[in-house]
Amino acid sequence: QQPVQSPQAVILREGEDAVINCSSSKALYSVHWYRQKHGEAPVFLMILLKGGEQKGHEKISASFNEKKQQSSLYLTASQLSYSGTYFCGTESGSARQLTFGSGTQLTVLP
Amino acid sequence: NAGVTQTPKFRILKIGQSMTLQCTQDMNHNYMYWYRQDPGMGLKLIYYSVGAGITDKGEVPNGYNVSRSTTEDFPLRLELAAPSQTSVYFCASTGGKRIDTDTQYFGPGTRLTVL
To answer: A29, A53 in Cβ contact below 8 A?
Structure first.
């Protein structure tokens, strides 16, 4: 079953913060976050493993709450380059398959 | 490393025509995947492969076929194109052995229109 992402869309001014959530009804091995610019392929941001860890990548970080089967992506002090659609991909089965959410469209305005 | 490459970049088909979308990776990855992405939507898994000679259906396999004769190549075949197959198709691959670092790497995509 597809994970649920929220919000569907968010508009920010440069320098503002945002949180994107990804929830699954299945027990997960891992959550993978990607960003996709219009007309391009998804680009990998980070992977979270079960165990409730938190990871960071520049001003983008994420957490994974194993009890709730929920991951959150945190974007701090957003930059124009952060604009795009963010997808979570959840891994719960075999063959390292990912099931993707429907995406969160992030727009950062100057 | 070129990573994951896909050809063609764009294609227009007429209803009922057939075509093969090519996907090649040079990272010696065992796992390969085909997704389709409809406008404004997420990625849906069509087929996947865990190694040469082994393929399996994903969420939306109807109307498609795949083969995996080598580690590097994973072509996707559309036999009788229908307007519902208008989409962007992405191929992806992963080594799959390191759960803490191995993620899927995507090719640039093929934009297909069926008229």
So the answer is: no
